[in-house]
């Protein structure tokens, strides 16, 4: 399973009014703490103390202020939007660069100083639209267009994705250019397809969701797995497990993923022991792949380039046994089998980044079910080896 995660959609995702909620500023200081160069950037962040945040479709807007106490020669002032991926121990691989010269003016009618000698206070506003896709050369040499990936920066991460606004004051020959940089967060926006009609009705009425047996269009039912093991070190038992995940497989951050699990067995004692919320171990797992094979789903995964991390745990509650009618995946029910149904949810944390595929760095999510675990039950397979699905 590779669900795609999307941020909860704002009222107007491309509104520049929303993208100008907070103003962020960084400055360069000269002698005696005088701020001679300041960069202001507008963003959707809740406060100016937070990292600036922009969504897909936003423009980078703001202004540059220059305050010189004495006349100086300035060759040019350039504002840029830059983005790139950086693997640990390697140089940045840049995939986005947008430049805009603020001074000298590109047209004679532009207001501002007309020579390279500048003194006093000056201000230049800027607006630079962010593209939705960028051309990138893949490791195999082919060229392709890819959606902008989200900002990604975590402690001990093997790869980082950084977006930043940079203003450079170019002072001319034999003098050092003065750069000023402000990083910002970028978040793509995606919208899932509408859920099934019965699911929408349940949400609108505040009623229980109809399960896969009554709403097959609203669920993705995984292949049934057979859990074999030994009960109380005395007899071998077998329990059939079926996992169903609500569709479409695209969820907003901060919302739950509805899931269902059915367990069937001809051994009532095994069901009583294993068909409990405590015995089920279902997780949301983040998969990060780096390197030249990051976008190849069939490439072998190596420990130094493929990283798995559990980012969410499911919690369950028991449904009445009478609600079960056959197996979720349509497999025939064997004579003497009993069944138990448990419903649950996995919360998608607000801090998670959406899935994306990008050259040399890919992030995916999957729902992973580990073997059942309960006192008195010894699984035939490793208790930490996930079931395929």
Automatic annotation (TrEMBL):
Chain residue ranges for the region called Disordered: 1-22
Segments of skewed composition (Low complexity): 1-20
Highest rank taxon of the organism: Eukaryota
Full protein name: Arrestin-like N-terminal domain-containing protein
Organism of origin: Pleurotus ostreatus (strain PC15)
């Amino acid at each position: 399973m590779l669900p795609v995660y999307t941020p909860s959609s704002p009222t107007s995702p491309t509104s520049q009014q929303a993208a100008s909620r907070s103003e962020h500023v960084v400055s360069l200081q000269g002698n005696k703490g005088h701020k001679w160069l300041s960069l202001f950037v507008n963003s959707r962040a809740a406060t100016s103390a937070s990292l600036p945040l922009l969504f897909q479709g936003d423009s980078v807007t703001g202004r540059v202020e220059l305050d010189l106490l004495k006349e100086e020669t300035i060759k040019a002032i350039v504002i840029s939007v830059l983005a790139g991926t950086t693997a640990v121990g390697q140089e940045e691989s840049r995939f986005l660069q947008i430049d805009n010269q603020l001074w000298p003016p590109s047209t004679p009618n532009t207001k501002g100083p007309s020579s390279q000698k500048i003194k006093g206070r000056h201000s230049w506003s800027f607006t630079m639209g962010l593209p939705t896709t960028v051309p990138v050369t893949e490791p195999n040499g082919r060229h392709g267009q890819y959606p902008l990936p989200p900002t990604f920066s975590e402690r001990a991460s093997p790869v980082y994705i950084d977006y930043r606004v940079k203003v450079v004051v170019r002072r001319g020959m034999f003098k050092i250019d003065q750069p000023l940089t402000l990083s910002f967060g970028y978040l793509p926006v995606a919208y899932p397809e509408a859920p099934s009609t019965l699911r929408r009705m349940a949400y609108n009425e505040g009623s229980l969701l109809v399960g896969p047996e009554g709403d097959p269009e609203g669920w993705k039912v995984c292949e049934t797995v057979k859990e074999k093991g030994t009960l109380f070190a005395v007899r071998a038992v077998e329990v059939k497990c079926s996992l169903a995940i609500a569709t479409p497989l695209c969820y907003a951050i901060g919302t739950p993923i509805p899931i269902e699990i059915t367990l069937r067995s001809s051994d009532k004692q095994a069901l009583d022991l294993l068909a409990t919320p405590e015995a089920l171990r279902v997780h949301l797992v983040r998969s990060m792949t780096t390197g030249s094979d990051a976008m190849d789903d069939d490439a072998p995964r190596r420990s130094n380039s493929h990283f798995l991390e559990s980012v969410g745990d499911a919690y369950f509650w028991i449904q009445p046994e009478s609600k079960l009618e056959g197996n979720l995946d349509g497999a025939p029910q064997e004579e003497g089998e009993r069944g138990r149904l448990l419903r649950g949810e996995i919360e998608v944390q607000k801090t998670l980044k959406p899935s994306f595929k990008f050259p040399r760095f890919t992030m995916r999510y999957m729902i992973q079910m580990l073997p059942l675990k309960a006192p008195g039950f010894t699984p035939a397979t490793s208790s930490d080896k996930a079931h395929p699905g």
